[in-house]
Structures are given as structure tokens and as C-alpha cells.
């Protein structure tokens, strides 16, 4: 009888975690504040060499952001999870743009579609379209993919799914990581 009650309680807990919106994200933020910390992977100088056509900012090369902490996001207007995380990225940008460089690269997208998306939503985060090949080390395999690079090019975060980038755990991580 006791075993049955324990099993029922465990099934109920798993059910709540799996099916109640927000519970899984809350628990992930509490126990695993950032999806992955990859201490050993560093983006080399060659990896940074990507010509970027500015959409709402001047054109540049990613290597101009070397020696600075960078929030690097690969996304597309055609990607529902990318669109879903945009408001959280904008809020993070509004509060952290003085401390970290934001580079969002639209992939498999037309310039006109990107401009329209930014304009319709009043987004001001710097957006680019890559004009040269992207290194395999950071080339996304899924969208959205986001990297947080420290000033030495070390990958501190690699998230290849939707994430609420305006959460307290992300803000705390950025504060501690960019010192």
C-alpha cells in the first residue's frame, strides 16, 4: 500500500513537471541556470572572421568584437522559436547593452523580411546577415542557437533552443561571467 502511494505521488510530480506550463522552465532555471557551459571551447581568430552586413546597424566583421564579451545569436524570421525568444533578447539588450556586445545573425533569410520584422516589432538589437562563410565551430545546426562568448573568445553558454534570455539566472550569469 505504501509503495503504491509513493508511486502515485511520483507520477503526479512527473505529470506536473511535464504538463503544467512554466514549471519545467522554472525548475530548469533553479537547478540548471544555463543550458551548457563549455569551458574548453574557444572561438579562434579565424572563427571570428565573418563579414557582416548590417541591417539596423553599420556593416562590420565579427572580428571587430574580439576581446569583448559577445551575445551571438543565430536566428531567422521563418523560425517560430526564434520569434518567440526575440522579446526576451530585446529586454536583455536594453538592460545589458553597455556591458556586452550583441550580434544577432539572420540565417536563411531575405534582408527585406528581416527589416520588416524588426520594424513591425520595434526591435533595436543589432542584426546582421553573414556575407562570408561561418566556421563549423559556431555554425548552428538548429535554430535559434545562441552563444555567450567571454572577452577571450571562450564559449560560456551554448543554447540551441528557445530560452527566456531575460530571466534572473541569465542576468546573474552575465554579471559574473563578464567581470
Description of the molecule:
This protein has helices at residues 2-19, 23-31, 45-48, 80-96, 111-121, 168-177; strands spanning 51-54, 60-61, 70-75, 101-106, 127-130, 145-149, 155-159. By secondary structure, the chain is of the alpha/beta class. It has a 7-stranded mixed sheet, covered by helices on one side. β4 (101-106), α5 (111-121) and β5 form a beta-alpha-beta unit. The protein starts with a helix and ends with a helix. Residues 32-39 have low confidence and may be disordered.
Can you lay out the helices and strands and say which pair or pack?
Layout: H1 2-19, H2 23-31, H3 45-48, E1 51-54, E2 60-61, E3 70-75, H4 80-96, E4 101-106, H5 111-121, E5 127-130, E6 145-149, E7 155-159, H6 168-177
Parallel strand pairs: 3-4, 4-5
Antiparallel strand pairs: 1-2, 1-5, 3-6, 6-7
Amino acid at each position: 500500500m505504501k509503495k503504491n502511494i509513493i508511486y502515485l505521488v511520483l507520477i503526479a510530480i512527473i505529470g506536473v513537471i511535464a504538463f503544467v506550463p512554466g514549471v519545467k522552465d522554472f525548475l530548469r532555471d533553479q537547478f540548471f541556470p544555463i543550458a551548457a557551459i563549455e569551458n574548453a571551447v574557444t572561438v579562434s581568430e579565424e572563427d571570428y572572421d565573418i563579414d557582416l552586413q548590417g541591417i539596423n546597424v553599420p556593416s562590420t566583421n565579427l572580428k571587430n568584437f574580439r576581446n569583448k564579451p559577445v551575445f551571438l545569436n543565430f536566428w531567422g524570421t521563418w523560425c517560430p522559436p526564434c520569434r518567440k525568444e526575440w522579446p526576451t533578447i530585446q529586454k536583455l539588450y536594453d538592460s545589458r547593452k553597455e556591458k556586452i556586445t550583441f550580434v544577432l545573425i539572420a540565417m536563411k533569410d531575405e534582408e527585406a523580411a528581416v527589416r520588416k520584422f524588426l520594424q513591425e516589432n520595434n526591435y533595436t538589437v543589432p542584426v546582421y546577415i553573414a556575407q562570408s562563410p561561418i566556421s563549423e565551430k559556431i555554425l548552428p545546426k538548429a535554430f535559434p542557437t545562441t552563444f555567450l562568448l567571454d572577452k577571450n573568445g571562450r564559449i560560456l553558454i551554448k543554447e540551441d533552443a528557445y530560452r527566456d534570455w531575460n530571466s534572473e539566472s541569465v542576468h546573474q550569469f552575465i554579471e559574473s561571467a563578464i567581470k
